[in-house]
Design brief:
AhpD-like, 2% strand, 9 helices, mainly alpha, globular
Amino acid sequence: MSSDSGYTIGAGQRIPMIDPERLSESQQAVYDKIVSGARGVIVGPLRVALYSPELADRWQSLGEFLRFNSRLPKVASELAIIVTGRYWNSQVEWSIHAGIALNCGVPPEVVEAIRRAEAPVFDDRVQALVYEFARKLLEYGQVDDDTYQALYRLTDKCYLVELTALVGYYSLVAMTLNVHRVPLPENLSAPALDLPETGELIHPTRLPACKLEQKR
């Protein structure tokens, strides 16, 4: 399928992905920043964000900070990202970050439980609280005082501020991937999310509270 821009649109896509060989001067400047930075490649929502170069520039800068330069431990940030991707039913966000979460130390059984929208079981209290913080923030736009204060006691102010920003940022990422139907990067696959067959629009997935089983 061809668009009026002359780019080819793959099956299921709504708009074509930006062609690196056909960039404007302003697009090229942002593209070069992205591929020379921590990402090394341009994938996901930035493949369509480049239609608005100024937006893409600000977007890539915030995203690079939150993903690569935040003070959050990688296990915490990737756990929060897959919770966010699962909540918003974003197959692409899930597929990119589920493997990263495993490599960063999120237990395989936790990743699988989140994929299936079942209650994950943690043996790490901080991870359990990160899950609950992200889950409640997504569902209610707020976090109850018990969860907030419990995580605060184990971390610090910066941790909570950056965790909140991370969930908000990856909500933007998930929505962009979903609404424009951005395809999976080539050579990347992950188990599909369990989604109901209810038509084109699906409500966010309400994730259950986790369980904590402390190590003996």
